[in-house]
Acyl-CoA dehydrogenase family protein
Amino acid sequence: MDINFTAEEAAFRDEVRAFLKDKLPEDISRKVKEHKRLGKEDTVRWQKILNEQGWLALHWPKEHGGTGWSPIQKHIFEEECAEAGAPTVLPFGVNMVAPVIIKFGTQEQKDYYLPRILKSEDWWCQGYSEPGAGSDLASLKTRAVREGDHYVVNGQKTWTTLGQHADMIFCLVRTDPDAKKQEGISFLLIDMNTPGITVRPLITLDGEHEVNEVFFDDVKVPVENLVGEENKGWTCAKYLLTFERTGIAGVGQSKAALAHLKQVAAQQISNGRPLIEDPHFRRRLADVEMELMSLEMTNLRTVAAAEAGGVPGAESSFLKIMGTELRQEITHLFRTAAGPYALPFLNEALHDDFDGNYVGPEFAASVSARYFNFRKLSIFGGSNEIQKNIISKMILGL
Ligand SMILES: Cc1cc2nc3c(=O)[nH]c(=O)nc-3n(C[C@H](O)[C@H](O)[C@H](O)COP(=O)(O)OP(=O)(O)OC[C@H]3O[C@@H](n4cnc5c(N)ncnc54)[C@H](O)[C@@H]3O)c2cc1C
């Protein structure tokens, strides 16, 4: 295994850097770097720019409009985007449902949905979890009954990220209640404007409206919106999750956050000297930096293995745990750096056009919101406890 970048890969990095310098809108990257609220229009604007360049669909094959990039190219691209302050691409369309449609969809589904996803014409959300089905996803109860040329769907999904903006939702539904748990599930594409769908906000600890409950009350879904075979949706569901966990380590984001934290700690004064010189804070910062370096090495090892044709296995569980814990720890250190100024919460200060007075230093305005928001990282994408179960079985053989 060789984790050094080749001359071609270094040239590719330069190309990505030049593109970001030229095309990433300054107002958007400023919002990302200053942790201001991003709107739907920011994400869509950036996705359209990426699509014009042919760089939106990282994981699709070339014939469908994907980049056809190698794992190393994708890694370089994601790292550069994080450093430049590019917003995260909405994963539900381009990175989740599209690969499922490409692998299991009909020709009509590919012809209709894939170009729309590339052009960001539909905002997608993910309808997997339910009040009684999260870690144990196969317990899901939302029911779809076939009646002629459509299914009638009844039930509830929850934690539906950004579902308030969505045009489409991909859902796991139970089509055979008598079969074994995993065998009676189907994968349906549902238009969010269909009568009988209600979206209700769930406000998270940071006061944001990011997730929702989605209720289905006799919702009619045409049978042509079934992906793959009826009752074989679990195969699609598992295939999609392999894409949900790509790039899960978040190394680029942590590196950018750590660089910012160091800047802040150099400016904040604690006991008459810059916080970065405080021995206790320095030690915690050094711990995070060392962990991040080892995470990056592990991440590069998986990327190099994927480049050589390997399939990431239980290592992605390891990356998920370490990556998310580090991102959470960095938000904790930001709060330490802000001290008492981490406490006041001025909701409007997170708006880009805020021209009022900050209670403390400007960076402190968003640190608590981010700290609370990032509790989600160890829950979604398969909770960290579930990842530990995977490691104990697959790596430790327990
Ligand atoms: C902010 C946010 C956004 C989300 N977005 C979406 C979305 O867009 N679409 C979607 O479908 N879902 C989404 N989810 C749901 C997410 O996938 C689930 O929350 C997650 O799978 C955990 O399920 P749960 O919340 O039902 O918790 P539970 O599964 O009930 O778990 C509760 C606790 O028990 C632990 N636990 C459960 N089983 C085990 C076990 N076998 N061994 C050890 N510990 C265990 C868990 O780790 C957790 O700590 C989102 C969640 C959050 C927080």
